[in-house]
Amino acid sequence: MKSRSLKVIVFSLLLIVSFSVKSQDFQGKAYYFSKSTMELGKWGARLSAQQKKQVQERLKNRLEKTYILTFNKEESYFKEDEKLDAMSGATDSWGKNFTPGPQYKNVKENTLIQEQEFYGKKFLIKDALQKLEWVMGDETKMIGDYTCFKAVTVIPESELNWWSFSWDKLRNQEKNKDSEKTEGNETSNETDINEIPMTQIVAWYSPQIPVSQGPLEYWGLPGLILEVSVGNTTMLCSKVILNPKEKAKLEAPDKGEVVTKKEYQTIIMEKMREFRDNRGRRRS
Fold it and tell me: What's the CA gap between 154 and 198, in Å, rounded?
């Protein structure tokens, strides 16, 4: 009990001595490094250690990325800090089909606007912010110069990385549809809810930077999220600049066909199903 009370006192002191964000022109910039591990599955089991290493090196541009989050009290703009490929001298244009595009969040208006490109066509996704019911704990750690507190939440797996596509997603979607046809509508709502795959999100936030912002769609904590781990990916803040001399204008993306997240997912699923069917017809 004493430990919990001490944590609360420390938390309150951090808020008191934290940077003031009352000024309308307050702004900050956070740099994140994202690293993912790749599951090679049954195919990978047949590879030697050297071959696995070579595959990891080839995909390094997609497994390790850097991002920049520009934020103020109410808004944020998140984008990838694109780097040239050391071998080809070009950016990973094909990979853009499966990675998050520039993203604007407005926590006051509960708005998400994200630009996405899918095989040359641009979309503008407009939707509400992801609902995140955080459970805040007492555990702390230092990230750079900032004291961070741990928070955990869970979301449906289908809502994670909604901009991305994999053949597994398509196969699972079709499998679920077949199951629904077989079972009919007899399954109760309670059973359906229990069967929804959930993903845990672990975040570390600092009340020393008291803005309800974070990378990607993560937000809603009483401090900037400096680290977040989801599945096989961890995103860590490497540098924070508060009130830079040169202020950036936070503007939402405005190019592309306007759709919701659900509509976008439907579009890319249908398109990939079309690719698969056309490929099958060419082989027959």
Answer: 6
CB 219 within 8 A of CB 212: yes
* Rg, the chain, Cα only: 21
Give buried/exposed letters for 55-69 (b at 16+ CB in 10 A, else e): eeeeeebebebebbb
Q: What are the mean pLDDT values of the chain's consecutive 10-residue runs (284 residues total)? A: 49 49 75 80 59 59 85 95 54 59 96 92 95 95 97 91 73 62 53 72 97 96 97 94 89 95 90 78 61
- Identify the CA nearest to 240 among candidates 141, 101, 143, 103: 143
Per-residue pLDDT, 91: 47
The residues that bridge with 71 in the sheet, in sequence order, are: 28, 76
C-alpha distance from residue 256 to each of 91, 165, 271 (Å): 21, 19, 17
Distance (Å, rounded) from C-alpha 229 to C-alpha 235?
A: 6
Show the CA angle centred on residue 182, arms to residues 177 and 185, nearest 5°: 85
Alpha helices in the chain (DSSP H): 2-17, 41-45, 49-58, 60-63, 167-183, 189-194, 261-283
Structure tokens at 246: 């040169």
pTM: 0.77
Closest CA to 37 of 17, 64, 6: 64
- Residues forming beta bridges with residue 29, ordered by sequence position: 70, 241
